[in-house]
Amino acid sequence: MMNTQKLAGLIQKSHHIVALTGAGISTAAGIPDFRGPNGLYVTHRYDPEKTFDIDWFDTDPRIFFAFARDFLTTVDRVQPTQTHVFLAELEQQGLLQSVITQNIDGLHQKAGSRNVIEVHGSFQRGHCRGCGHGYSYDKLKHKILAEEVPHCDCCNGVIKPDIVFYGEAVQGMDEAESEARHADLFLAIGTSLTVYPAAMLPQFSSGPVVSINRGTMGEVVRGMESIERNIDEVFAEVRSILSPSL
Ligand code: CNA
Ligand code: ZN
Fold this sequence. Notes:
Blueprint: H1 4-13, E1 17-21, H2 40-43, H3 48-51, H4 54-59, H5 62-77, H6 82-92, E2 96-101, H7 107-111, E3 116-118, E4 121-128, E5 134-136, H8 137-146, E6 159-163, H9 173-182, E7 185-189, E8 209-212, E9 225-227, H10 231-242
Parallel strand pairs: 1-2, 1-7, 2-3, 7-8, 8-9
Antiparallel strand pairs: 4-5, 4-6
Helix pairs in contact: 1-10
The chain binds carba-nicotinamide-adenine-dinucleotide and zinc ion (ZN).
């Protein structure tokens, strides 16, 4: 059975830790996930199948931008969790090489992580669906908050943030796969491992795979061990085992 003592031991002897994170790492910061007890699939505050579907976006973008206004306002005022900070510390110590994230909340960067592969994209930029004109975060955010649907200055087309919708190709997958193949320890944190192809990444790992996640998971990765507990509690324990003085 995997526990925090064993996990701390694995972290200590690894040099190329790779973390794959999902929405569960950010729930403690106040951002709802999809499939957790207060997730969007449960509360139906927004319907993820419509909100993040590219065909729905092109049919009626108001559904997505209602969510986006809410999300951007939330993200601006939330702070990274202890676990985001811990992963940034492991990177600074040279133990962790990269964070592959399915999240679009920017909290890894806010916590100080440098090598972040955002396979589902981010809000940091946007592009016009009509003419392809690029928009910076500030410009995009201003338009999202000011208009029901943000329109392009050049062609009046709809501007879409560069996040990956259902029906669109994921980003940085080659790099993510290569990182996974180099991993001597692969941590899947706060992800139900149900969204493909990101959910395939653990199986490429050269080292042990440990999932830190509560709740129902997708297809089991062969040989994966799990700690089914609260994420911040797990990493607070791991951190105090590794550096008892902190
Ligand atoms: P998911 O399918 O919602 O899974 C999250 C998992 O985390 C669930 O199994 C939860 O039970 C578990 N969980 C939540 N909180 C905790 C906690 N404190 N301790 C332990 N376990 C916990 O999310 P995935 O990321 O796997 O699904 C992929 C989608 C969700 C990605 O495309 C994300 O972009 C998308 N998403 C991202 C955000 C964000 O950026 N913060 C928010 C909501 C959804
Ligand atoms: Zn345009």
